[in-house]
Amino acid sequence: MANNLQLVSQAEQEQSPREDYVAYQTAARRQRKMIFYDGNLHLIGMPSYSYYVDAYSSNDGNLWLTFSMTVYRIKGRHITRELLPLLQDDRVKSLYCYNPLRHNDVDDDAMVIEAITRHTVQELMSVRDE
Question: Long-range contacts: 62-66, Cβ < 8 Å, 24+?
Answer without folding.
Answer: 64/119, 64/124, 64/127, 66/121, 66/124
